[in-house]
Amino acid sequence: KPVDAPNVVQGSVLDIAYLGNISTYHVALPGGQIVKAQTANTNRIDRRDITWEDAVWLSWSQTAAEVSHAAASVLDPDELLEQVVNLVHERFGLYYVGLFLVGQEPGGREPGKWAFLRVGTGKAGQQMVEQVHKLEIGGASMIGQCLVTKQPRVAMDVGKEAVHFANPLLPDTRTELALPLISRGQALGALSIQSTQAAAFSAEEMAVLQTMADQLAIAIDNAGMIRRAQSRAERERRVRDITERIHRSADAGIIMRVAVEELSQMLGASKAVIRLGTQEQLLGESGQASHSEL
Q1: What is the pTM of this model?
Q2: Does residue 22 contact residue 39 with C-beta atoms inside 8 Å?
Q3: What is the pLDDT of residue 38?
Q4: Contact in structure between 193 and 94 (CB atoms under 8 Å)
């Protein structure tokens, strides 16, 4: 049992995975919940090897508990990102923390090519967000590489790191940790965690930070699904309203005008057109089609 740990619980090991210098365990708790715990491989080697069905004690930091609480209780994605980034920055006494999400440039044809900074701490972070700072996925940056490999990447001395992006707004960075945000096998984004000290992160701290990143990724994914479900429900409600308004009228002109006005508003279109004609006419050139615009 952990000594002097602020939060402890006992469970039974269901599954084990070893990744780099981190061991990951899925543990069943007495109440039926299944949690993921991570520890540095040095701990696994120094102590008796834990195996399947072993009884184990888990402990977690207060910061991890706060991140877990925010991930479970904050449904607004923007508020969630802001809270977690600031929490990690303050609790670990870091130089800078930034959160990138995979996205697409307006009008871009290559979805998932770029990671855009959504939240960054300090004046540097605010400035980069305002400038729409982005990094190419798979490009010469820690974030770009961790997103394409879906694996954490750490530079204990950024001066010796081949793919480190030397940001002029963060000149004092000595150590950088890039943690992917993975949910259901998809890389949603990544955390950039930077310190002014060389070799700033221990294996245990990296395991804790990766666990928090995993929790955040699941929360982001869930919040996105909730937002998409709400949007879909709203669209369906408005379609029902349009249908009811159309059914209440016997005037073809009013029916078409209601359909055009409501659908253009719902879809955010600047202009909507109804074309009337035979299939051959409508498939032909627009100049030859017989149509009515409202």
Answers
A1: 0.61
A2: yes
A3: 67
A4: yes
